[in-house]
Amino acid sequence: MIPNIAVILTDAQRRILWVNEDFTEITGYTLTEVIGKKPSLLQGPESEQDAIKRIRRGLEHKAPLQEEITNYRKNGDPYLCKLVIHPVFNREQQLTNFIAFEVDGNVVKDTENIPFLRLEEKYSSSSLKGVEEVKLFFRVKSLMEKEKLYIDPNLTLKDVADHMHTNTKYLSQVVNHHAGCNFQQFINTFRVNEVKSKLTGEEFQNLTLFGIALQCGFKNKSTFYKVFREITGHTPKDFIRMARA
Questions:
Q1: Could you give the CA distance from residue 205 to residue 199 in angstroms, rounded to a whole number?
Q2: Which of 20, 107, 129, 218 is at a distance of 20 to 30 A from 81, taking alpha carbons?
Q3: H or E element at residue 193
């Protein structure tokens, strides 16, 4: 499952223009509370001064940077913030924005397999094309998490594109770029995680494995077992055994 990845979009003066819902999940701050402010509002007494200086230096040089720093949630709790910041330029190569991707390092230990946390990823493409892709990706991620469209076994790319008022080609491109997989694999990831949550819940103990899979959007037994193993590295029975160990 894609972890919560906070996204912060600022203007060239580093004032916040937009944050995604994962930002609110991690920090406790809503877009309304932070718009117009600077991301430094997340810093506090234990925020490492050396890290602050490195971040400031990278921003001043308009260069991509990767850093770890102690940040603070709205309730005052500190957490380890692992972040990447990219400058965004227009077609004339003028700085227009900064975009930051952040995870809670207390929850996400390994960031190597998260494309957003790689410096080589380029989000400074002409104008705000790259930024708009990011926004669309996190919209579809949030849509799946909240409305659970993946439970429909007949869900198609067109269904989701229509729901989001976009086109199939663009949505497919965005998912492929930012999730690193095709649309069907992206949807199956949510289905598998739904299965995993049900396999460990007592209220579903009376159902067969495939009975649970059917409730999570799978409609073919062999496909379910194949996809589950591809995504988790384990069979459903092995997963249950390890979860109950």
A1: 8
A2: 129
A3: helix 183-199
DSSP, res 88:
E
Fill in the amino acid letter for 179: A
Regarding whether 30 and 114 lie in a shared domain, the answer is: yes
The tens-digit pLDDT sequence of the chain (245 residues) is: 678 999 999 999 999 999 999 999 999 999 999 999 999 999 999 999 999 999 999 999 998 999 999 999 999 999 999 999 999 888 888 899 999 999 999 998 888 878 788 777 666 544 457 788 889 999 999 999 999 999 999 999 999 999 999 999 999 999 998 888 999 999 999 999 999 988 887 776 778 899 999 999 999 999 999 999 999 999 998 998 887 76
Radius of gyration from C-alpha coordinates of the chain: 20
- Do 136 and 47 share a structural domain? yes
Tokens of 143: 């849509």
Q: What letter would DSSP give residue 180?
A: S
Q: Could you give phi then psi for residue 120, rounded to 5 degrees?
A: -70, -15
Domain final position from 140, 171, 203: 140
Tell me the sheet residues that pair with 67.
83
At CA 115, angle to CA 111 and CA 117, rounded to 5?
50
pTM tops 0.70: yes
Q: Give the residue numbers spanning the domain of 61.
A: 6-140
The CA distance from 118 to 32, in Å, is 29
